[in-house]
Design brief:
The chain is built from 15 helices and no strands. It starts with a helix and ends in a 5-residue tail after the last helix. Helix content is 77%, strand content 0%.
Length: 376
């Protein structure tokens, strides 16, 4: 079977474009990661506003967006409170765990045949934490500056959302093109909302169940660990590994005289993640995101390499958006087909918003008819 030179050249051009695009994303990660987070937060706030309008029909529509912003600020404040209220006690208890940790290290050393077990102080001296002090300080500084930049981007995105309709009309003066563009935008938005809805609900299930088990085994800082498990649930695959491993490890330190609390906690967390990940999650997700499981893992690695932790956090919605955009063009549709689970990357399953989020009643079409040139 002969392959047309035009097809070979087109595929080669697509491959080079993907490589160049990845290099550009990596090179501009300092600018693009705060922007991507701001867009993600803007979609979340817009979803809150539409939920308020749907659940409270008498609520003034003009106040829906300000109320959604206020709720988001309150949620962020609650997160900061949980971290600050429990984080300090967590650090203090880690210092108190030093003798117990030495006992655990001695038991492990005896099991592997080491005659003289090192202490936690010896291990810290060997690691030489002063080498990482500068890097840690730089990371905290970058986090603070990125948070401010995300808020600035978010403010401008919310302020400029009113002009989105006019831009769509100017870009697509004909109704057919405009409707196609709006359908693509709504599918991408619904995909992000679906991801948020699924990860939030399943994360809450896992966190509450894990908190109950940790309270039963009397693990210290159970609320703090439950909060970390909930946050880690937004990172596919790695979040589950973090949630299953770290609490049992600290149970070993807290209960050095017995391995049973750590073993019970590990088995319980594995069962919780298995039930939620293999029973609840598939039923909630259905065919909406339509991403191959291998692609989910690959996207986590690729976006993590490009944008770090931010890329891991946004890997699924970003890949869904890329798949939907690539499906619109003949030259790149084959990539979208490979990314999809059932070979249909059109995103038809995303036409329905997630539960609790109503479709936007006000369309851009009435406004576009008034501003479209020639009334097309």
């Amino acid at each position: 079977m002969s392959i047309s030179p035009s097809i070979t050249g087109r595929n080669a051009l697509v491959f080079l474009a993907v490589v160049a695009g990845g290099a550009a994303l990596y090179w501009m990660r300092g600018i693009l990661t705060p922007l991507a987070l701001a867009v993600f937060l803007a979609v979340m706030i817009d979803s809150f506003a539409r939920v308020l309008v749907q659940r409270a029909p008498r609520f003034p529509q003009r106040l829906a967006l300000p109320m959604a912003i206020l709720l988001s600020i309150l949620m962020f404040g609650a997160i900061v409170w949980v971290v600050t209220a429990n984080g300090a006690g967590f650090v203090v208890q880690i210092r108190e765990y030093a003798p117990r940790l030495n006992e655990v290290i001695a038991k492990v050393a005896a099991l592997v045949g080491v005659k003289v077990a090192p202490t936690i102080g010896d291990l810290i001296d060997q690691l030489n934490p002063s080498r990482y002090a500068g890097a840690a300080a730089q990371s905290l500084q970058n986090f603070a500056s990125n948070a401010v930049l995300v808020l600035i981007y978010l403010g401008f995105i919310i302020a400029s959302r009113k002009g989105f309709g006019r831009k769509i009309v100017a870009l697509f003066p004909h109704h057919a093109e405009r409707d196609g563009a709006m359908q693509l935008f709504q599918r991408i938005r619904n995909g992000v909302e679906q991801y948020l809805w699924i990860q939030t609900v399943t994360g809450l299930m896992i966190a509450v169940a894990a908190w109950a088990v940790m309270m039963l085994v009397r693990l210290d800082n159970a609320l703090f660990w439950a909060f970390l498990i909930f946050i880690a649930a937004y990172i596919p695959i790695l979040g589950g590994a973090i949630g299953c491993i770290l609490p049992p490890l600290f149970a070993l330190v807290q209960f050095p005289e017995s391995f049973w609390p750590a073993l019970i906690l590990f088995v319980a967390l594995e069962v919780i993640y298995f039930v939620v990940g293999n029973v609840v999650l598939p039923r909630m997700q259905g065919d909406t995101l339509n991403m191959d499981p291998t692609v989910v893992l690959l996207s986590l690695a690729v976006w993590g390499a490009l944008w770090g932790v931010t890329g891991m956090f946004l890997s699924t919605p970003l890949t869904v958006a890329v798949m939907l955009v690539l499906a619109q063009f003949d030259g790149t549709r084959w990539i979208a087909i490979l990314l999809s689970e059932d070979g249909d990357p059109s995103g038809a399953g995303l036409d329905t918003p997630p539960p609790g989020v109503s479709p936007k009643k006000k369309s851009l079409r009435p406004a576009s008819r008034q501003n479209a040139p020639g009334g097309t």
